[in-house]
Design a protein that fits this description.
This protein is α+β, with helices and mostly antiparallel strands. It is built from two helices and six strands; from the N terminus they run αβββββαβ. It has one domain: XisI-like (TATA-Binding Protein, 2-Layer Sandwich), CATH 3.30.310.110. It is 20% helix and 43% strand. It is elongated, with a radius of gyration of 14 Å.
């Protein structure tokens, strides 16, 4: 799959992780120059404000590197359901070798 298509799929899937939850709001942040994309959650639990990065993915060449995924609906599953080949997905958070 070509890089432009990979980027479109990644961005479309990451949009599905954004929005309002029960006690939180999830935001997609991007750095187009570095082709890195994150989902940041901002939550209110009792009287505490919690902020955390819950998903980090980046494009490098013709591969998607998932650096962090703390969701119950994993990004890798969504990407594979969209037809992204397994050999174009690197699960860095699980210890997969990073592309050179």
């Amino acid at each position: 799959m070509d890089t432009v298509t990979l980027k479109e799929i990644v961005l479309e899937e990451l949009q599905g992780y954004t929005g309002e939850g029960l006690n939180d709001f999830a935001y997609l942040t991007t750095n187009e120059a570095e082709q890195i994309y994150t989902i940041v959650d901002i939550a209110q639990v009792r009287d505490k404000r919690l902020v955390g990065t819950v998903l980090v993915a980046r494009l490098t060449g013709d591969q998607i590197v998932i650096e962090l995924d703390r969701h119950d609906k994993l990004l890798v599953d969504a990407l594979q359901a969209r037809g992204v080949p397994e050999d174009q997905i690197v699960l860095a958070y699980r210890g997969d070798a990073l592309p050179v």
